[in-house]
């Protein structure tokens, strides 16, 4: 349970949370669109992957992270993780925020992606590749059914993809096997799919291999730009929240694992030299 406590009230950075490195793909797009804000990135690398964990565990880990980021001065936290968005977002919004501070906000990555897919698919057959947890939650099916009831959704769990990224094997020849077999399996299950949502923020890091094995003509939907545009729109409509974000153009990286390893990997992902600090969420 998030404890009610004395949270900093002064304006602060936007918090961006993921189980590990995946949220960097979202942060990169958000910063590209809104470089003026300060950002605080938190990767729970010590406990990644989340995608094979139960609802209760993902909820508990995610609210620890949200509580931590609020304690660091964030008024707005983006769950840059589909698994956390699928399993913890609604519970945090409904159960924890009113108790903790009803003025703060936690937003996820699934809704902006679902909004976008309606304009992309022509065949109205869409694939979702994601962690076992996200697929089991059926959140994509439910959300797409609400906005685009004519779309048929086929979900494909890819249990090996996040471990390949977290263990720095995403570029290795061995990764080809796991990428190809999941894509082939998805398209065998529904050959009419014309658009595939990468429903895990880690997956763009496997993009070279995903492109290699995805047949031509199938649109690969990356979430980053949709999440960034949706956030920009949210902040335009909610000036009271925009005023609670500091505008220094900085980004700080926190990890629950070794800071040096995170710094090296994040440098590759972000394309700029950076360092990280190690923190504990418990
Ligand atoms: N990046 C996360 C997501 O978007 C999940 C990774 C994990 O399994 O920890 O689902």
Key words describing this protein structure:
2 domains; Rossmann fold; alpha/beta; four-stranded parallel beta sheet; binds D-glutamic acid; 282 residues; six-stranded parallel beta sheet; 13 helices
Write a compact overview of the structure shown.
This protein is α/β, with parallel strands linked by helices. The protein has 13 helices and 10 strands.
Compute the CA-based radius of gyration: 18 Å
Biggest sheet, spatial arrangement of strands = 4-3-1-2-9-10
CATH topology of the largest domain: Rossmann fold
Which structural class do the helices and strands define? Answer: alpha/beta
The DSSP helix count reads 13
Shape: globular
Average predicted local confidence, pLDDT: 95
Hetero groups: D-glutamic acid
CATH architecture of the largest domain: 3-Layer(aba) Sandwich
Sequence stretches where pLDDT stays below 50 over 5 or more residues: none
What is the strand tally? 10
Order of helices and strands: EHEHEHHEHEHHEHHEHEHHEHE
Portion in helices:
40-55%
């Amino acid at each position: 349970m998030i404890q009610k406590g004395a949270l900093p009230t002064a304006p602060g950075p936007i918090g961006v949370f993921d189980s590990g490195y995946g949220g960097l793909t979202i942060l990169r797009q958000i910063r590209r669109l809104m470089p003026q804000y300060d950002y605080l990135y938190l990767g729970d690398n010590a406990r990644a992957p989340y995608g094979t964990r139960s609802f209760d565990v993902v909820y508990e880990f995610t609210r620890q992270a949200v509580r931590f980021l609020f304690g660091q001065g964030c008024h707005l936290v983006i769950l840059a993780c589909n698994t956390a968005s699928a399993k913890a977002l609604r519970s945090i919004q409904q159960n924890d925020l009113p108790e903790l501070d009803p003025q703060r906000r936690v937003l996820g990555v699934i809704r902006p992606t679902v909004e976008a897919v309606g304009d992309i698919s022509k065949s109205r057959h869409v694939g979702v590749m994601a962690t076992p947890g996200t697929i089991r939650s059926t959140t994509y099916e439910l959300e797409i059914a609400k906005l685009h009831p004519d779309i048929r959704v086929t979900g494909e769990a890819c249990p090996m993809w996040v471990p390949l990224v977290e263990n720095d094997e995403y570029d290795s020849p061995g990764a080809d096997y796991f990428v190809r077999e999941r894509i082939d399996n998805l398209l065998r299950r529904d050959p009419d799919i014309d658009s595939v949502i990468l429903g895990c923020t880690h997956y763009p890091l496997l993009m070279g291999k995903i492109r290699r094995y995805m047949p031509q003509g199938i649109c690969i939907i990356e979430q980053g730009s949709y999440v960034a545009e949706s956030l920009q729109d949210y902040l335009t409509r909610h000036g009271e929240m925009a005023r609670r974000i500091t505008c220094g153009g900085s980004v700080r990286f926190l990890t629950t694992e070794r800071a040096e390893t995170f710094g090296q990997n994040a440098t590759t992902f972000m394309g700029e030299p950076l360092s990280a600090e190690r923190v504990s969420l418990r």
